[in-house]
Amino acid sequence: MDELLDADGGLGPIVTKLEAWTEGLIRLTPNLISALLLLLVLYVVARAFSYSVSRTLRYRGRPALANVGSALVRWSIMILALLLAATIVLPSLRPGDLLSGLGIGSVAIGFAFKDILQNLLSGILILLRQPFRVGDQIVVNGFEGTVEDIETRATYIKTYDGRRVVIPNSQIYTGTFTVNTAFDFRRSEYDVGIGASDDWDKAMQLMVEAAASTKGVLADPSPEAFPVGIDAYQNTIRLHWWTKPDRASVIHTQGRVILAAFKALNGAGIDMPYPTQVHLWHDQTEDTDGDRKRQREGWPAGRGDVPRSRFDAAKEASRENQSSRSD
Questions:
Q1: DSSP 8-state secondary structure symbol assigned to residue 2
Q2: Whether CATH 3.10.20.30 fits 2-112
Q3: Residue 172 in contact with residue 179, Cβ under 8 Å?
Q4: Which of 295, 297, 291 is CA-nearest to residue 278?
Q5: CA distances from 228 to 2, 107, 198, 236 (A)
Q6: Are 165 and 157 spatial neighbours (Cβ–Cβ below 8 Å)?
Q7: Residues paired with 150 in a beta bridge
Q8: One pLDDT digit (tens) per residue for the chain, 327 residues
Q9: Which spans are transmembrane here (predicted)?
Q10: What is the rounded distance in angstroms from the CA atom of residue 230 to the CA atom of residue 154?
Q11: Among 133, 128, 141, 130, which Cα is nearest to 168's?
């Protein structure tokens, strides 16, 4: 503070400083006006280019890329405008010095905001390459739903139960995901079991006819059925059919196909078995245990005198008791 006062304690040095600053500002006034005019002109140019990019991309059916592309063009032009304005206001400031400073600063910014920049770049690449679009139904990281929006940082998905999932773009771009609506058709399948003695060909024909007559099933490609296994309690037939790829069409059509196939097989008298278990209980402390000639349940007794089951023995004993009472 003392250096701003003279020996007598006056304000002469302060006044001198203010006059110097005022003269410097007056000398810089033309540069400031030129810089402001340049910023204004480039702002108008940035808006015009941004609008042109947005309109072109929207016309080509890419609204998500239109939002991001127009913003990138606008901000790029404005950053260039600020750099040019700085060199006009401060003639001693060279563009090379600015660029070198930005280069050093960008390294530090890159380390500090690595995840943000990674998501930004991934979002731009997703919008450019377009592996999926807004409205597509995708499965990513265990989440399945409809794409609501694709931004530079994240992709928004609305699940089928009405929830919103926000997934960073870097996880999508570097990971694996499934686009259920990428093509016009989607195939569904269902396994149906028939009895071991039922006619394979008749059952497959009935299932194909039932699927072909179901609402929502496409005629081309046509439904098909083929054997896939002779299992423990059934012969298994796999039914294929094609529908529109959206979730609602797939689920609703599958329900109608299953119902139609069941009615067709049941109406034709074809058995659709279910797993059956038989539990045999016996006393392992009996001396007959393990002797197939003497045991009463559990294994085939073979030839010769076959021991009666406990049920038959109990019935006979009951009849004998009733007979003895009547006598």
A1: G
A2: no
A3: no
A4: 297
A5: 99, 60, 15, 6
A6: yes
A7: 155
A8: 455 445 555 555 666 666 666 766 666 677 777 778 888 888 888 888 888 877 887 777 777 677 777 777 887 888 788 877 777 777 666 666 665 655 555 555 555 567 777 888 888 888 888 899 889 999 999 999 999 988 888 999 999 999 999 999 999 988 899 999 999 999 999 999 998 889 999 999 999 999 999 999 999 999 999 999 998 889 999 999 999 999 999 999 999 999 999 999 999 999 888 877 766 666 656 666 555 555 555 455 555 565 555 556 667 778 888 877 766
A9: 32-50, 71-90
A10: 49
A11: 141
The CATH number corresponding to 186-267 among 3.40.50.720, 3.40.50.410, 3.30.70.100, 3.40.390.30 equals 3.30.70.100
Closest CA to 241 of 231, 230, 229, 252: 252
| Alpha helices (H) along the chain | 12-59, 63-89, 95-112, 114-129, 169-174, 200-212, 247-267, 310-326
Q: What is each CA distance from 66 to 46, 57, 60, 62, 69, in whole angstroms?
A: 15, 5, 9, 6, 5
Beta strands 137-140 and 177-179, pairing class: antiparallel
Q: What is the largest CA-CA distance in the chain?
A: 150
- What is the CATH topology of the domain spanning 127-179? SH3 type barrels. (2.30.30)
Q: Is 8 left (phi over 0), alpha (psi -120 to 50) or beta?
A: alpha
Token pair 């913003």 is found at: 71
Phi and psi (nearest 5°) for 123? -65, -40
